[in-house]
Every structure is written in C-alpha cells, then in structure tokens.
Amino acid sequence: MTKTIRVAVPGPFPEPLDYLVPLRMPLPPRGSRVRVPLGRRELVGVVTAAPTTSNLPSDRLRTIITVLDDEPLLDEEMTSLIEWAAHYYHHPPGDAYLAALPVRLRQGQPAEPAIESAWAITAEGREINPHALERRAPRQAALLEALQAEGSLSTARLAGFDGDARGALQRLVERGLASLTQAPDYGLILGRGEESNLTLNEEQVEAARAIQPGPGHEVVLIDGVTGSGKTEVYLDAIARALTQGLQTLIIVPEIGLTPQLVRRFQQRLSGRIAVLHSGLGDGERLNAWLAARAGEADVIIGTRSAAFVPLPRPGLIVIDEEHDASLKQQEGFRYSARDLAVLRAHRLDIPVVLGSATPSLESLENVRRGRYTCCRLRQRAGEARPPVIQLLDMRGQPTQDGLSRPLVEQIQRHLQANGQVLLFLNRRGFAPTLICHECGWLAECDRCDARYTYHRGRRRLQCHHCDRDRPVPHHCPSCGSVDLRPLGLGTERIETALQAAFPDTPPARIDRDSTRRRGSFERQMEAARRGETRLLLGTQMLAKGHHLPAVTLVAIIDADQGLFGADFRAPERLAQLVVQVAGRAGRAERAGEVAIQTHHPEHPLLQMLVHGGYPAFAEAALAEREAAGLPPARAMALLRAEATSREAPQAFLKSALAEAPHDPRVERLGPYPAPMERRAGRYRAQVMLQSDLRAPLQNLLTQWLPALGSLPEARRVRWSIDVDPAETL
DNA sequence: AGCACGCCGACT
DNA sequence: GTCGGCGTGCTC
C-alpha cells in the first residue's frame, strides 16, 4: 500500500497538496524536502504531514519524484513557526516554507556544507627533519616545514608556495608524510574572545542582569541612548550564553550589519560566528544556515531572514534597532522579523532582547502593559554629555541652496574649532524636480504620481519610484523656454552649496548614488572616522549605527517633509531619525550640537523632541494613537490592490468589502486610493481594517480572504494582504 | 506563480 | 493560411 503525504509547494495554494509515496521510497518525515510534479513542472516542497486519508480520491493524487532529505531538514520548532507565520500573515504556506530556506535548499540541492580539501601532517611526517629532503626536493621540504608548523594546509593556502605545490604534496602523501583530508567548511568566523578594556557601568550591569540566557522566557527592552553601550550589554549576555553552551541569534537591520560590527563581535566573543547578510553568495548563505542548524555556529548574526535560522541549542535572541522598519518584509511574505523572533523566544522558553535608542511605540506599549521588562541606559560612554538641540527658524530667512545664514555660521564655527560636521538630508539627487520658469511646467514621471529628480552630476532626470531615467530636456516641452530651473533640495545641491561656502573643506557626500560601487560606503565612513573628512553630507545611510566620535555638529537640513507625511507613522519616523542623527554628535569630551532647520519651529512634535527628548515624544505619540484608534492601540491590516487601470483596484476592493463577514468589532475604511495612487504605471488602492483586539480581525481575515480569489474582479488586479503594516503607503 | 489552452488580429 | 496577443483555468 502506498502512503500519502502532505507537501507545501510554492504557489498560491492556501494549503499543502497531497502526494503519494511509492513503497520503494522511505516515507519522508515532516520537515524534509521532496521533489514533486505539479502540472508539467517539477518543484521542491516541504513535507508537512503524513495524513491517513486525503481530501482527494487517491487516483487523483500524483507520486513524488524523489525524497531530498531522509532526515527532517526543519525540526518541529521550525515547521510550526513557519506555519504559524503563514497563518498569521495570511500567506500561502508553501511560499512561507520556501522563503524560510536558503536559495540552494529551495532549489533542491543537498543540505550539505561545502567540503574543503586540506593536507594534514601525519605522525610520521612530524618525525622527519624537512632539511633532509632539501637537496633533492626543495618544494616538498618547504611544504613539510609548513605542515609541521601549521598542522594542515588548505587548498587556498597553497597559493603561497612556488611551483607545483599540489604535485609536491602528492609526493608527500605517497611517502606517508601527509594525508589528504576532507572536512566540512562552514565558513565560520572564529571569535577571539578578547577581554574588554572597559567595564560595564551600573546601568549596563543592571540591564545585563535582566538577561538570563537559557530556560525562562522574558522580553527585555533595552532603551538606551546612542553611545550608552547597548552592544556591551548584548556581548555580556551572549558571552554567558556561550559559557552555557547555548546559541545566540542576533538580528540587525540590513544597513546595520557592517563589517565593523562583525569585527567587534569577532574580537570580543569566543565562539564560532556565522554571518547571514544580503551580500553573501548562495553557497555562503547555505553554509551559514547549515552551521546554525548543525549547532556548529554559536552565534548567528543576520538580517531579517535570519529569523528563520534553525537553532538546535537556543539560549538567547537579540534584535538590535528593533524600531527599524526594514525588519518588516515589505512584499510577498510580509512578516516582521522582530515579532517572529519574540514569538520564537516565547516558544523556545528563552529570553529575547530588543534594543534601540528610539524604541518602537509597539514595544513601549508592551512595556506599559507589563509584558516587557524595560532597562534604560541614559549614561553615555566617556562622560559624553547629551547634545544640545536647537531649531533654526527658516521663515523669512535668506538661504543659499538650502543652507540658512545661521547654519553656515554655525558650521564655520565648528570647522574652525577643528570639529567635524554632519549634514543630513533625506533626498538624493540635485533637486526633487525641475520647473519651467516661464510657464510653471514640472518634470513629472509619466508612470508615477511623482516628479523626476534632477541629477546634475549624471545630467539625468530620474524617477525614484520606478526605473524611469531620461536626459534633461534643453527646453520646456510645454512652452519651449530654455529657462528650466531646479526646484527644491537634494544632497547634490547641498554638496555644491557647501563647496561654495567652505572652499577649504571639501565635503564628502554619502548617499546611494555616491556609494554605488562596492565597498565605497565603508571606505568613505572609514575616512570620516579617521577625521580626514571634516564635512559630511548624506541621507538615511549616514544616520545608522556608525561611530563617528569626532562629530560636534549635526544639522538636519529639512525637517518639514517628515512633519506632514501621509503615513500615520511619519512623525514617529522623523522623531527616530532626529534622535538617531543627534546621537552621532558629541560622543567624545565635547558636547555636541544639533541644528534642525524648519519652517515650523512651533510644531508640537519638534517642541516635544527639543524639550523632552524621545521619551516625551513617545508618550505623547502613544496617547495620540490611542485617541485616534491606531496601532499599537489597535490591530491593523491592509488589503491592497493594484492594476494598470484606475478603476479595477477600486472595483475589486468594493466587491471584496461586500463579501466581508460582518463583525462590529472590526472597523473598515475605504476603499481609498493609496497616498501615491499611481506608481510604476500601476494604480493602487487599499482597504484598512482595524480592531481593538487581534482575534476578531484575524478571524475575519481567515474567513474572508479565501473567497477573494474567486471574485471576478480579482482577476483584473494584483492584490495582497498586509498584517501589521509598517507603512500604509 | 507558472503554464497550458483558446480564440481573435497582422504578417512572412 | 500561420505567429502571437493575453483572458481563463488548473495544478494534489
């Protein structure tokens, strides 16, 4: 009798599909991969169950092609985590399963690490004096000497020897002096476990004490101002996990996973470290993942997708910069790495640490409700004093390409005092658009409800919302005038203005355009760290986690764009940005200054930040969300739709809403057009669902969504659901 | 999602 | 007469 198994295959299937396993094959257990036929394709899927019966008659079931893993690739903890996430985020389980695996495993390649060949010294080889060989076989002698010193030589190491090293080694093998060995190469980094030269201060000791790796679940929020040494607290806790023989998973935002951070972990921790980031090749990713699964890696540092790394001996999970929006996947399987990590820690019964200088309102709300323990770190290292924030009122001020007089003078002062200045503007290019001075024509993208950004260096107009890129017109397409002028501010323009204002201090511009080349971002930051660059200017990239100890002045060129954003989280983002950027200043003995240029100095958000800092802002923002009935006070989900016609998304959402089960506890808003209705040639609209409690909203979605696919209007749109959206755009 | 089938328009 | 456009439907 043949057996039936349930297989999660990639595709829009709400449930795994059933297949037969022929008698000659071993029955693959839950969590192992199989290759299966689907239509006329062959796919890799993950076994989720071995049911006794199928919903379909067995003559309609097809037979699996091969069993790819005899042992489960994913243990029960992983399979149930993935299934929970697929259910919670209303994403097809097959896609969720495959998204959780490294590409190579998704493609059906064996779950085996790279094998490294190496030549090892034999007992006999140790006894021989290499010089005895020297005359007739100098190459063998050199290699034997190296083998005696190093124990073994990897293939890569052979490059350091002259001539035919392989041949000479072969000779040594024949003489029984060396042997060819094969060992898995997980590509792990070996920690050096060096002692710290600084001791934890009182606050840090208390925070570290709140984190007890190993059995016992607790969520610890480390609310620590920049420079307060959050990382030292992590390192202390990770070191204790290591001594207990337990693994630590550290999740950091994409931009925060720098070589600098990895070096620091390597220097201070004593275990074997696996790093998982986007720059890795498929093979390296697979190795790191397998190292974690095999328990070979003691510490795993990774970005969002590392939330799905298997941990056979888990002891601790750390989420750094827990407020960062990049921890939420923005398309496809829209999971939050932070929320999943907290869930995992709960299920594994281990502690999880959330760290941030500007915690998310979600986490602060959890602290308020007593779900999370909060440790505050207010003391900055080296007695550095908190920066002084001041608002520069731009109203009626003459400006030179966005720089007001007072700001120019302030920069001057800092440069003369041998300080370092960092200017921040969250818009790259020269100007956000080009305008005709004669008729007012604006360079607008024809595929988006947005303007072209003028890039003067490249002499192009570029749309930052789609891939459009075109030459700058010589004259106005509307009236023919040649008087086309840049309108608004971008980093290129500020760079020009700085060059003019400070001819003796060349500015370094750091944005996506200037750091396109591989490694150039790191190089520029390194130059800044050494103090070679005194004047830095850049976007978001500049704000995150890079230590620039000599910065004395930080300027935010334009705070106004963040004050009036369409997204309800825009103020939160601005506040976080201001605080993070401000944290770059005054880390050494000098107190830093922060200058914020704005046309709305009286704005309550800015006032709050200047006078009460982030805690005051967060408290006010939480109260506001409560009053407005927005997250984290209430649960939210977004049904989005997009199509090439303006009507189709609206029509789909309308009939979708008509199908929605009625529940007075779930509020519905819309359909309404997305804040930027047209993007990359597609019109977008959405429906917002909100509820005081998660459960009714979840239940409604569970009942509602399966029916949406069969709506006639659904075929004219691309639609998706976003649970706990990070952005409502 | 991917891939077939099928039914209408312009072309070697 | 065919090549190919993308609407429609299915995959255990």
From TrEMBL:
Zn(2+) 2 binds at residues 445, 448, 463, 466. SUPFAM superfamilies: P-loop containing nucleoside triphosphate hydrolases (SSF52540). Residues 509-525 have a biased composition (Basic and acidic residues). Zn(2+) 1 binds at residues 436, 439, 476, 479. Residues 505-525 are annotated as: Disordered. Component of the replication restart primosome. This is Replication restart protein PriA. It comes from Spiribacter insolitus. The gene is priA.
